[in-house]
Amino acid sequence: MTTQPCTHPDCENPTTGTYLCRDCTTHLQQLLDQVTETRQTLYTTMCRQDQTSPANQPTKGSRTTGSPMPLDDEAMSMRRALAIWEHRDANELARDQHAGNFEHMLKDLLARAWRLVDNPADTRIYGTCDQPLHTGEHCQWLLTGDTHAPAIICRGCQALHATRDLNQRTRERTRGNPMPMREVRQEVHNLTGAHVTGKDIENWAIRGALPYVLERVTTTKKTLRLYYPGDVYRAYFEKRHPRLSKAA
To answer: For 128-179, what is each residue's pLDDT tens digit?
Structure first.
């Protein structure tokens, strides 16, 4: 059987009967072994499960509830690209005349995939669409999108919503009633998904960025501060997205 050089561009080891030497075949298999886990991790990124906790999107004739999963198109495309490498055997691939390019191709795909996992788009929920429909009802589709996008398109009725208008609507809806710190943190999280710490609230109040009311003023008991959920969310939003809050 004829011996020839390994076709990997960075290798000159001899190989017999295949286009990759033993070392390069081993390296390729190590990359192939990462594909399934990477695709599973991309699925979580694609679905944005950590960003979508309210009730499921309404579907005609269905009363099912659950977690909606707005798709991340780039992550979905990457999963498809990696699918052709899943459950493949390096020894089999080494017999392909293009095998010398496979390691670099797969390395690049895996690196791009993990960049998506480590740096996902900043996606959040904006509440229901509420656009009037020709039936006289209002669209109940859940609006989700990138916080940096100037507008969000409803996937149900295709209505276009300016992000700054949605932010203002969220702030108005979540102002609610004044609550103690622990309760207001939980309320803001339930309504918007925002994670606010007690230290955040204290700092915002000290700097004058967060108004509060006093439940009682006496000489015998410690004064209890109460906060509006909407005010807490506004302070949180302006801290995290100063550019968008100015535009709003």
So the answer is: 888 999 888 889 888 877 777 788 888 889 899 888 888 777 766 656 788 8
- Short-list 184, 179, 160, 193, CA closest to 226: 179
pTM score, whole prediction: 0.44
- For 188-246, the pLDDT digits (tens) are 887 767 788 999 999 998 888 888 888 665 555 677 889 988 888 878 877 776 554 44
- In this structure, the number of other CB atoms found within 10 A of the CB of residue 189 comes to 15
Beta strands 160-162 and 151-153, pairing class: antiparallel
